Amino acid sequence: MSRPAALAVCAAPVLGLFAVAALAPLPYVLASPGLTTDVLGAKDGKPVITVTGAPTRATSGHLRMTTILATGPSSTVGLAELVDNWFRTDRAVMPKAAVYPTGGSDKEINVHNLEEMTKSQSDAVLAALGFLHKSPDTVKVELRLADVGGPSAGLLFSLGIVDTLDGDGQGGDLTGGRDIAGTGTISADGDVGPVGGVALKTQAAARDGATVFLVPEAECSDAKSELPDGLRLIPVATLAGAVSDLRALNRGGPVPSC
Questions:
Q1: Domains of the chain by residue range
Q2: Mean pLDDT, to the nearest integer, of 92-103?
Q3: Do residues 142 and 176 make contact, with C-beta atoms less than 8 angstroms apart?
Q4: Among residues 152, 158, 187, 221, which one is catalytic?
Q5: 134 given a catalytic annotation
Q6: First-to-last CA distance in the chain?
Q7: In the annotation, is 152 catalytic?
Q8: H or E stretch at 209
Q9: Mean pLDDT of the chain
Q10: Residue 239 near residue 128, CB atoms below 8 Å
Q11: What is the pTM assigned to this prediction?
């Protein structure tokens, strides 16, 4: 067999593998900037945050929770789509396990995400009331945003409760009237955790008018990777730290940055 013929025969299986790879589904999802929701505002005509059992205050400014929009858990992504989206700044290719870590059917994953959101809301209430030294036995908080799955709104819920009850601690807004966005899980003790997709969430925040973005400390580098112009990053590790930073921002004092 001549050398060109041998090369052609050897290349055929390789080309076949590339063809299969191009058509085979890959364990990734495509994600883009999602919706933002002001937790100090209303959802379907009702306040997102309702507090009973303690005096509340009117608020101004915005505290925007941010989301990503991802292809569904049962959707497939081929090699051509992956390559087409890999280098786009308004899209991200993410491992499916990072977005849908539980596996299972679409219905099971949706149920899991809503359960995570419910737990996140409960932890957000406990963290905020603990920070303010108020008892959950006497102060009741209702959060209306159960149709967004996952735990990544926890920090913003806690900050919204603090602003509704106490503001900056001196009668003013915790936001200082600004449009502030952010993301991060929250524990009942007030610790802030990473969430993923922050580079897309900063884009969603800037698109909807935010000028400040609170990012989990561990995800600073990811947030900086595609940071929109005019959006200031503030890294946070705890609810107490986030409140302190916002109060310092209002006073014109030093505030950490990524």
A1: 33-69+105-251
A2: 73
A3: no
A4: 152
A5: no
A6: 62
A7: yes
A8: none
A9: 85
A10: yes
A11: 0.84
